[in-house]
Automatic annotation (TrEMBL):
Residues 3-118 form the Response regulatory domain. InterPro entries: CheY-like_superfamily, NreC/VraR/RcsB-like_REC, Sig_transdc_resp-reg_C-effctor, Sig_transdc_resp-reg_receiver, Tscrpt_reg_LuxR_C, WalR-like. Keywords: DNA-binding, Phosphoprotein, Transcription, Transcription regulation. SUPFAM superfamilies: C-terminal effector domain of the bipartite response regulators (SSF46894), CheY-like (SSF52172). The keyword Phosphoprotein applies. Pfam families: GerE (PF00196), Response_reg (PF00072). GO terms for biological process: phosphorelay signal transduction system; regulation of DNA-templated transcription. This is Response regulator transcription factor. Residues 149-214 form the HTH luxR-type domain. It comes from Streptomyces sedi. Gene3D superfamilies: 3.40.50.2300.
Amino acid sequence: MIRVLLADDDPLVRAGLRMLLRGAEGVEVAGEAANGAEVVEAVRRETPDVVLMDIRMPVMDGLAATRALSGEESTRVIVLTTFDEHGLVVEAIRAGAAGYLVKHAAPEEIVDAVRGAARGEPALSAAAARALITHAASGTGDDRRAERARRRLAVLTERERAVADAVADSLSNAEIATRLHLSLGTVKSHLSSALTKLQLDNRVQLALLAHDARPPR
């Protein structure tokens, strides 16, 4: 059973999500929170598998709450918001979110995202995916962020860094195996090791970090 915490300051939104998830097989609502501070407390009390997190909330917003939960290995955060600005998508993924959806997403997309996040898979709406692609293609970023990214990546072995660069190029594990002349199992091993060393939750965060480390185009 996948246990989900609903985090939104609008009780009507929480009620709608509650009804949606109660109709999904293998999913249950573990609790609710109306602000970011309540989210952090509820996660540590209820240990849900997934949090559906709004961004604009009082006391502590969703991005700050996501950062505060970045060390909770058993809980995955999916940002679910009305805002789909490119900057917010990138900031949410950097904060540790495993996914980013807009509230007008189809009900089945939200349920699929919850199930995917529980399996450790990133869940991005089409708009969020485009935002990350645009960010990567722009090659923009400040020198300090690039230097920080390079220092973090320095802990990786040569093969792990090559895998990280391939992930940043949006290659699948099979495509990485072909590019680097490795077995699929070896690619998965290097990817898992890189995520562990860098304390990242998913390959989307790894791709962003690798992009940040690249020189401007």
